[in-house]
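I have been asked to look over a protein record a colleague put together. Alongside the sequence sits a line of tokens, each denoting a local backbone shape. Please read both lines and tell me whether the tokens look consistent with the sequence. Take the sequence as given and treat only the tokens as open to question. I have pasted the whole thing underneath without changing anything:
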Amino acid sequence: MMISSYVGTCLFFAYAEGYKGFQKKFSPLVIRRAFTLDGTSPILHKIFAPFYSMALFHSTKRRKIISWSVSGGVAMIVMVVKRFPYPWRNILDAGVVVGLSWGALSIAVEYFHTIFSGKLPPMDPFLPIPKD
């Protein structure tokens, strides 16, 4: 039963976190927003570039709510899973490693694709509408 739980968890996290979460949504967003930073960008956007790229600030209200909710949700899930007994915590941790590895790889692939093709990901960067 534990082996099937391990394999099932890894497959679930590969699909849900890695493919659906990272590859299809988060990675293109991060790359798209990262490429909006240039010499004219405010210094705080450059200093906090990872947070800017994750749309945690200087984004539309809806996108900020989503980004902060996901970050907070992940933190709460981590606190709950830390209390799971052996082997269930380890099984979930293995799934998370698979999902995060897929995510890191998808960010790298998206970055190099953008560099070599010269085409930005076809994703809205969710920048706020400037006020006149």
Remarks:
- The longest helix spans residues 2-34.
- The chain has five helices and no strands.
